[in-house]
Design brief:
Largest sheet: 2 strands, antiparallel
Order of helices and strands: HHHHHHEHHHHHHHHHEHHHHHH
Shape: globular
Mean pLDDT: 88
Structural class: mainly alpha
Helix content: over 70%
Strand order of the largest sheet: 1-2
Radius of gyration: 21 Å
Length: 407
């Protein structure tokens, strides 16, 4: 990591000291921020999941696009200041998938986001999430990162595979994008994600020329969304229950572990991360915003493409905020035309970056637990993968104890 790590860790002891107040930490984070082309490029590394899920929830479930973008932008900015790292702000994937597949209404989506937010906030504020963290072994966390990372990479390949062989959105475009990213790896200051994003914008405008011709300014339409009893029941069963374990495992435990891997001495505490996730949803979902979290895949993607400080997500947040304030619905009408070939490449490299920390599991037993955990995630979901990994870890631990007792 070289000079980037030295830059970030120069004040790490002061930043993480318990004597430092919240405002002092934020002030120090602001001092350490970089606002450069490579940082902005890195901030774009998470768009592979943000764009398709956001566009689909707006079109299928009727969320107000301006509200969605404004709150996502505000939380990007806040996250950059509070954590000082490129911690992403993403749609809650389980809720998003259910909302899209089952056409949940805005009130039902709000109910799911509010209940997840409240539960995660309580776990973070009471330090229960830190107790959970102490119980979960590193090998299982590495397995979660491996499984989620491979999942992202597979979805990226699927996006590319769904395009034509040749054309404005095609396998040929994906190959060119992949070559660009690989060629740019030795060039630490080359903003490859920014180049891909700009190329994607040009291709999107060509693919949606009629929609782009009717592009117009529009103001946001804020409206309170308070779910009734039926909406809360639907949101709880269909959204909260599948989302809660995913949030705790990937958006709290895994992202905190990855922050320590990528930025030694700057690891985000799980309690703070859980409080952040909870507050985002309690503040925003009642206004019709989509449920949001911090994901390890997003952090991996942003880091891979050059993000090293909170400045990357602050710039990204300002962009989302301006688009939401002045373009709103008009901008989201164009998002479905953003080339899947470009988004797929972003997802593939983000997934591979997320999967890499499993390499530190050098003992056979550790690697077995990580692989089994990842296999469960790929075969079913994150919750099942976690449970399988914990069971295998417990069996290995008990067998070792039994052998030790016999000697």
């Amino acid at each position: 990591m070289g000079t980037d790590t030295e830059f970030l860790t120069s004040n790490s002891s002061a930043l993480d000291s318990v004597e430092k107040s919240f405002l002092q930490r934020c002030r120090l984070n602001l001092q350490n921020m970089r606002f450069s082309l490579i940082e902005f490029s890195g901030g774009l590394g998470d768009l592979g999941t943000f764009i398709p899920l956001t566009a689909a929830m707006v079109m299928v479930s009727g969320l107000d696009p301006a509200t969605v973008l404004i709150f996502a932008g505000l939380f990007n900015i806040t996250t950059g200041v509070v954590f000082g790292l490129p911690i992403p702000v993403q749609p809650m994937k389980a809720i998003a998938v259910v909302a899209i597949a089952e056409r949940l209404m805005p009130a039902e989506i709000a109910a799911a986001g509010l209940t997840v937010g409240l539960l995660v906030l309580l776990l973070g504020a009471t330090n229960l999430v830190e107790k959970v963290e102490r119980v979960v072994p590193t090998s299982v966390i590495r397995g979660i990162q491996l499984g989620v990372g491979l999942n992202l990479a597979i979805k990226g390949f699927d996006l590319v595979a769904s395009t034509a062989w040749w054309g404005l959105d095609s396998g040929g475009v994906a190959v060119a994008a992949g070559v660009l990213v690989l060629a740019a790896r030795p060039l630490r200051r080359f903003p490859s994600a920014l180049m891909l994003f700009l190329a994607g914008i040009v291709l999107m405008l060509l693919l949606a020329s009629e929609t782009a011709a009717s592009f117009s300014f529009s103001w946001p339409n804020f409206a309170a969304v308070w779910p009734d009893g039926a909406a809360f029941r639907t949101g709880l069963w269909r959204g909260t229950l599948p989302q809660l374990p995913l949030t705790l495992l990937n958006s709290v435990l895994a992202v905190c572990a990855l922050s320590g891997d990528l930025f030694p001495g700057r690891r985000v505490l799980t309690g703070r991360m859980a409080v952040s996730v909870g507050m985002m949803n309690l503040l925003a979902c009642g206004f019709g915003a989509m449920p949001m979290c911090h994901g390890s895949g997003g952090l991996a993607g942003q880091y891979h493409f050059g993000a090293r400080t909170g400045g990357s997500v602050v710039m990204l947040g300002l962009g989302k905020l301006l688009i939401g304030l002045f373009l709103g619905a008009a901008a989201v009408k164009l998002l479905p035309f953003f080339p899947g070939s470009v988004l797929g490449v972003l997802l593939v490299f983000a997934g591979l970056q997320l999967a890499m920390p499993v390499a530190d599991q050098r003992e056979k037993d550790q690697l077995m637990v990580a692989i089994v955990t990842a296999a469960g995630i790929l075969a079913i979901n994150t919750s099942i993968g976690f449970l399988v990994g914990m069971v295998v870890f417990a069996v290995i631990y008990l067998v070792r104890r039994w052998h030790s007792a016999r000697l």
